[in-house]
Amino acid sequence: MTAVPGRRSSTFSRLLRHGFTDPSGAERLLDLPELTALRDDSVLLDALGATADPDLALRGLVRLVEAQPDEERQTLTATLLSAKPFRDRLLGVLGASEALADHLARHPKDWQVLVTYEAADLNPGVAEFERGLAEATDPVSLRVAYRRCLLAIAARDVCGTAEVAQTAAELADLATATLRAALAIARTAAPADAAHCRLAVIAMGKCGGHELNYVSDVDVIFVGEPVEGADEGKAMQAATRLASHLMRICSETTVEGTIWPVDANLRPEGRNGPLVRTLSSHLAYYQRWAKTWEFQALLKARAVAGDPELGAEYIEAVSPLVWQAAERENFVPDVQKMRRRVVDNIPAAQVERELKLGPGGLRDVEFAVQLLQLVHGRGDATLHSGTTLDALKALAAGGYVGRADAAQLDEAYRFLRAMEHFIQLYRLRRTHLVPESETDLRRLGRSLGLRTDPVAELNKEWKRHASVVRRLHEKLFYRPLLDAVAQLTPGETRLSPKAAGQRLEALGYADPAAALRHLEALASGVSRKAAIQRTLLPVLLGWFADSADPDAGLLGFRRVSDALGKTPWYLRLLRDEGAAAENLARVLSAGRLAPDLLLRAPEAVAILGDPEGLKPRGRDHLEQEILAAVGRADGAEQAVTAARGVRRRELFRTSAADLIGSYGTEDSPRELDPGALVDGVGRALTDLNAATIAGALRAAVREGWGDTLPTRFAVIGMGRFGGQELGYGSDADVLFVHEPREGVDEQEAAQAANRVVSEIRRLLEVPTADPPLLIDADLRPEGKSGPMVRTLKSYEAYYRRWSLVWESQALLRAAPMAGDMELAERFIELVDPLRYPAEGLGEEAVREIRRLKARMETERLPRGADPTLHTKLGRGGLSDVEWTVQLLQMRHGWVEPGLRTTRTREALAAAHAAGLIPTEEAQTLDEAWVLATRVRNAVMLVRGRPGDTFPSDGREVAAVGRYLGYGPGHVGEMVDDYRRITRRARAVVEELFYGA
Questions:
Q1: Nearest-angstrom CA–CA distance, 911 and 708
Q2: Would you call 692 exposed, middle or buried from its count of C-beta atoms within 10 A (0-12, 13-18, 19+)?
Q3: Kindly report the CA angle at 535 between 532 and 540, in degrees rounded to 5?
Q4: Is pLDDT above 70 for 567?
Q5: Exposed, middle or buried: residue 681 (CB in 10 Å: 0-12, 13-18, 19+)?
Q6: Rounded to an integer, what is the distance from CA 895 to the centroid of its chain?
Q7: pTM score, whole prediction
Q8: Neighbouring residues of 908: CB distance < 8 A, sequence distance ≥ 6
Q9: Which of 144, 593, 958, 968 pairs with 734 at a CA distance of 20 to 30 A?
């Protein structure tokens, strides 16, 4: 085979064409004297080229030939050249599995198990595998015999003689035979223990479901009973010793490696419970203490080894409990929690490569099928299968899943399982990660029959099947519900109303009968509108079910659809604009405020489909729109109705953006910085209220005086309004200031100013379909006893002579909002020396502020309120943080320009930058303030009315938790976190504010 120097040999080119990636190395191997009889045979080269990895197959073949005794080598090579089935099987295994090539090199005679090719070899069962393991007498010989059997399974797999489900079943049967052999070895080692007890081994998980991987934990449960006349305690000890020995025989690493770990953690009480229990002990546990996931696990239970009668008794006893699991109180949240916990535990760097547990992975299919089995299996015994694909087929046959959808998922599941098998087969290691190297991906692609461009084709097919699985909830859970109510195709098997109700209940709907009525109203009939709804609803139902209140989401969708169903753009928007439907689902099922706003003007749903639609409009833009609407109106009331209509639309935009940012969607992850969400809401609501007040002011002036009021007039924002920190339930705290125009009598100016104030408040609070804007002027000089509006000179005189320290503190939030901006700026210049006093606050003023705060804590907290959970006045809440920051502003604002701001977080950051607060303390205060603000916003979004503490209703508090990023079942964790964060904040307040 020597080539001319400088030219590639014809063999080199042939090797390249046959799929070798290292043709030079392959040439050297073919030149070895051991392969003399094979090197020139074109049939061998063709067979190598047909394997998943020709280079790997050739290296394995060389090792196998080298390991043969001289007299055997010729037999092997002759058989290899003459028997095509054997050639394909041996080279197929060598090209797919480095681990099995290692086994053949260590046990060079084992190639002979691949020679036989009879009917029994094509469909071996437990009996055949037991014969293959019969001579094993210890853990080492058991491992050798196990791998010999595995060779035959792998050969059928890589050659396509057995499809993936059959391979998985054979692996489960081999595991069954192995457990029986291991138990026999353990019994032989301890005959006295064996004589004392009956022991049954129950397979769980994939082994129990007859769908095992090449390398997987074999999950088991042990059941023991004393033999007649034996003491139960001693019998259980004997059974435990036998079970422990069985586990070690299979799991321990020897000179021949290990088989697989035997995992008994699915037993009652997990690893904390006894390894072996009696049947009555098992039943007592399942009837009193078991959790939902334990019944889901029992769905796959199958007696495989030990005492067959005891195993059968166990299965017969626990089966009824499995099919009653869906009736348990916490079934739905438990199932949702289990699925999320699986996904949450995947390291972020691996989630996209995770074939089993990642999005669109194998666990998604298995989990969904099991859930449907548990929901519908109580009334339909045909669903009682532990095998995923058999159960999926039964679900389709019973009408619980559409046949086309089931076929698609069957195909996807088989492809993903085949990927998993070939990934594990390579080194016989337990992994579910898709490899990253080009070589490994190429071998994997070729194993699956993808030969043109294996890596690109593999990635394409994997993504295609994963995307099918990602949408499986739509296909499995929701589309059959629509088929049940639409009843379009005569003769098609479909869910009964009872089964549909059970399905909806299991998915979290509290009133399944009402939900079915909504679905029927939306989706029945042959109109184009109903057809589009049938396309949309399976997806929407899934998003609703993912929320804290699915019923409210579906009811809201029906109401919006009823209002907009005849408009040509509504359903088209939801169907064609990817984000619009999910955004709508999130908004409708997250609470009352946003849906109420939307239902008052349903056309605002268009906002949800516009990529720019959720971005807030700036104050200038809003003021321009509102003033234009006021200018077109006939009369003040019509003008302010238009202004309040704009406000309603913008409140919906702001709340929708907040909800979608808090929940996240498939296309856009949730906002991870809660402070950014709080700041965004505060700014948007402040700009909106300022523009609305400007519109009301214009309308009031125009109604009474035409274009010009006899006095210059300005509105000053105070409190959260001035600080741009408004929440959804906040009033607008304001001061009104005026200044008579030149030549206008002061009394006339004052009367005009007071009339304007009264009219603004009336117009903004008059009952209409739109939410009112409540104006609160109680922070004015002399409070409720003082005049509603003053001249600038009157403010100056009052503040010079009578101002109290609390009024100076309140003025820290003063900011121009509407009206005459030049007058407003002069007001700000007037109050700056009061709020940032030269040389800072005196000690007496500091003591007075502390006294006021302490009095407020004891007197203003509502009776019966939990001080650890009250967001405004409670421990470490808004008041604590704000008074602490404001004290720093008044003491140091005269020398630190950064402190001269109306915003709490901005002032806190400036205090930290100036060295007035250490980093950790500043972060603690900021975290507590943001959290308390978000809780108040959440309460308003969820309940539709303001509140300063967590709701008592279970669904409402769960919805608050979802808004804050806590999944189902984590309400307790949310409350604990709130208490912990605010407790730490209070400790900082004690130090910085009270000087403790």
A1: 44
A2: buried
A3: 110
A4: yes
A5: buried
A6: 49
A7: 0.76
A8: 881, 885, 917, 922, 925, 926, 929
A9: 593
